[in-house]
Sequence to fold (244 residues):
Amino acid sequence: MISFLGLCIQNLIQTIKYILNGNAKFSSVLSQAAMISYDSLPISLSIVFIAAAIISLQVSKQFLMSGAESYVGGFLAVALIRELAPGFAALAVSARAGTAISAEIANMQVTSQVDAIKTLKVDPIGYYFAPRIIAGAITVPMVVILAELFGVLGGMIVSYFTIGLHPNRYISSVWQFLNTRDIYISLLKAVIFGILIPLVCATQGYKTTGGAKNVGISTTKAAIKSTVFLLMADLIITFLFYVC
Fold:
């Protein structure tokens, strides 16, 4: 895992140089943005919406019994924006788009398409990595913002039908507990996750050798490694901003 992390850092540095030289094409970034985030939007929103609904189901009656039902919205909003929405949305994007990136690049590697790119004197790392990393960094935060809105909405619907909490009291609690710092940190997480997902998955796909069987193995490894790196990054960011 340590050697793989070093390989990811090398590829990221090479990709940044490729981008700074102005070689990244807008059309490629746009197509990758659609594949990474737009195609992953339904599953991301569904997961966060359901997670928020489940949490609301669990805490609403407990808050009602203690006379603190008006704080359900604030509690849920803080949990969603600080942790659940960025984490769940990123994991959904990784499962949907990250594995596709790894499989696509691994297939290009085993079918010698990468070697063909090299013969044209094109940097394959920059050519394959740059559009995906740019697209991820830009669009994953958009997915996270929508997921946060859907999560808050899901909690409001459930709390209304379970304990009869009026939407005005719910929203008032959200604004009372939530602050802009939490939103900024959430977006920072989303940007880092948006870079990590294509970087890790593309790196795993690029180092694939062998035949079609190895493409499947590499895709599985990409899913596992991207999940581990996302959780590690989440832990580090949370420690830096909420503990230190």
About this structure: The chain has one domain: 28-242. The chain has a mean pLDDT of 87. The longest helix spans residues 124-163. Residues 28-242 form one domain.
